[in-house]
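ok so for the tutorial part 2 we go from a plain amino acid sequence to predicted structure tokens. step 1 is just haveing the sequence, like this:
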Amino acid sequence: MYKLLCILLFILHVNGQEYDADCITPTGLASHCISINDCEKLKPLIRLPPVQREALKSWHCGYDGDVPRVCCPPTTPKARCYTVMGKAGICVSTKACPSIAIRLKPPVSTANLEYVLRSKCRGPAELNVCCEEPVRKPTLENTKANITADDRINIITSNPIEKVTANPVSTNNLPNTNSINIPNCDTVDIPNPDSGCCGIDSNGGNRIIGGNATAIDQYPWLALLEYSNTRWICGGTLISRRWVLTAAHCLVTHEMKSRNAQSVRLGDYNITNPGIDCVEVEGGGTDCIAEPLSITINETIIHPEYRAPKTFVEPNDIALIRLQELAPYSDFIRPICLPPSDVFQSPPANMKLIVAGWGAMSETKSSSDVKLHVDLPFFDQQSCRKLYSLKGKPIIWDKQICAGGEANKDSCSGDSGGPLMYSEEEKPFQITGITSFGVKQCGFKGRPSIYTKVISYVDWIRSVAKP
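step 2 — the prediction. this is what the tokens look like for a chain of 467 residues:
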């Protein structure tokens, strides 16, 4: 309770501070209302002929004395965000979002505080939230009393500051004043990779044995399975608001008896802390997430051919978990993409895959307190089959893939059922594998771990995982 109180006081302090006037650019990005002389992207447009300079009207937001202020486009566009309810939004300060600001009016309830914390996103202010509705419009400030609002806007288009050149100027660099296309991710269907609703990691990374702790909001699709007789022995991956993907062996024994998985834990970072997790970030600040969610399992679906054919080890080791309630999307709970194609048919040179989870850090410690991640090399199938063979016959098949085999870098039993991930540059993360099995020694040189190849099951997943 003391921790919640401290966070509440911090939020109220930040919410009461005065920021530069928050505004939304005509292209839909959160930014600041500043003097046009300080806006490197729009300042050159002052020299354009009057007709071409009309575009500046939509960026106007006030005055500094007689100098127009504009909602200056950010140097780096802010990443799109998703509200607690899974709807697309814009990352702005708490003051600029009416639905959040009203929740912060004293007295602030615990429920409202947790809602605000779950709405956090990375933006220009000290405390930013993902806001669905249009934010407050900037006000026209520092203006002369005898000039109307229309007159003030017209100042921008009446040949101010410098004489216009006779030669026309190219309009190729004019800012696009059309609204950006922010997807609606409120659907309960499994999102497609090109939808912008999956595989989006809000953190670029603080770049498991051999692994490093992740940022607090990295890999928001990671899940932990909670059991009736033990806390966690397996992980999983959120693929939609309704479904979690995991390994079949995490849900049933080899005799097909249930392991009694009861619920799925989402949005966690430090599994030893039952409350709000906070970490120190660059610049001396603190980044926090609200308490994790545990959602009851409604149904488990094991692949009908799990452990068949018997000539291979753990074939078809894949299963789906249907959640009783829809997962609320935020920067800390979000789905990964299913693979759109087989990246292993023509893998790039030195292909690196990613494993993340709360797995074993060594053979003597069963799990990590916080999320970990590690890059693993792709291990070609031919070489892997030679390593995993019995009496000269391979015991893995083409619906399994191999990765790892570097000393002190691998996934361990605590990550069973968790994702093996891949992301091409500028593209969303996709789940390429599900951690299935490996040698007893974690991070053993020359011995990769084995993963269920997800692309081989995409049709089955989509046919089963209905809303």
